[in-house]
Design a protein that fits this description.
Helices cover 63% and strands 9% of the residues. It is an alpha/beta fold and 289 residues long. Helix 3 runs antiparallel to helix 4 and helix 5 packs antiparallel against helix 6. InterPro entries: Bact_StressResp_Reg (IPR051932), RsbRD_N_dom (IPR025751), STAS_dom (IPR002645), STAS_dom_sf (IPR036513).
């Protein structure tokens, strides 16, 4: 007569949890800076309780059973949290598979016949193979969400629109321009023109490593959109090698004001606004006092 494995494991829940915690804490790669031992114990106990409550002779080798929906839900939540906290896939894998080792160790401490012990061990391995796949799928999904959020934040930071003077905004572009980034550049620039009621926008491309026909098309579209907003657009940071590339590609920028540096563009903007900036003669003022 076969033993009820689920009941055997349920009776040894406390010792299984202790063995599992011992396995995790003995791992050299454990990141105690990301989670305290108390939180790790609470997390482990929640998963173990759900697993033992839903484990039965009928589903012990079927991780896809509907009975394990609560277990998968907890496991997915843990994987997502660990991905966001910065755990590696290996660390998350150790968390899950060290539970399997603790369960098998508990079975060895019972009086199961060797054949039954072997068959039960094989079933538990299959069950945790399924849980492992679920864990890694969820972990990767969580990590992709983190990467996408960081990419959006970097794109936002890398396209700052600066109000350099009353009526003048500047947007220094650093790195490669592509369609997605150009859209962010255009949206940020147009919104800043509206917010500041600026009439002049300076696009500084001194941080763009290369200009090809696609980048040039992006710049032309941004300039056109700026003009539709009633503002004049100046492109600065035209380096000699970029100027040669533009000429070689036959790109017509004759209708756009271009300057070699941001300083030259700002000077031109001042002239358009009929502003004059003079260096203050401090020595002469001191002499007259």
């Amino acid at each position: 007569m076969k033993s009820d494995v689920s009941k055997l494991l349920q009776k040894r829940k406390t010792s299984i949890l202790e063995t599992w915690m011992k396995n995790q804490l003995s791992d050299e790669g454990l990141r105690d800076d990301l989670m305290s031992n108390e939180d790790l114990r609470l997390q482990s106990e929640e998963l173990l309780t759900s697993l033992l409550d839903n484990l039965s002779e009928q589903n012990i080798n079927n991780g896809q059973s509907d009975d394990f929906e609560p277990v998968v839900e907890i496991l997915s939540g843990i994987s997502i949290i660990r991905a966001r906290q910065g755990y590696s896939p290996r660390e998350t894998g150790v968390f899950v598979f060290s539970l399997r080792d603790a369960l098998i160790q508990a079975l060895h401490d019972t009086k199961l016949e060797p054949l039954e012990l072997y068959e039960t061990t094989v079933k538990l391995n299959r069950l945790f193979d399924s849980f492992g796949v679920t864990t890694f799928e969820t972990f990767i999904k969580g990590r992709e969400e983190v990467i996408l959020r960081q990419t959006d934040e970097i794109s936002e930071i890398s396209t700052p629109v600066i109000r350099v003077w009353d009526g003048i905004v500047a947007l220094p572009i650093i790195g490669t321009l592509d369609s997605a980034r150009t859209q962010i550049v255009m949206e940020n620039l147009l919104q800043e023109i509206v917010d500041t009621s600026s009439s002049i926008a300076i696009l500084d491309i001194s941080g763009v490593p290369a200009v090809d026909s696609l980048v040039a098309q992006h710049l032309l579209k941004t300039v056109s959109a700026t003009r539709l907003m009633g503002a004049e657009c100046i492109i600065s940071g035209i380096r000699p090698e970029i100027a040669q590339t533009v000429v070689h590609l036959g790109i017509d920028l004759s209708n756009i004001v271009t300057k070699a540096s941001l300083a030259h563009a700002l000077k031109h903007a001042f002239s358009l606004l009929q502003l004059e900036v003079k260096k203050k003669n401090i020595q002469k003022e001191k002499a007259s006092v």
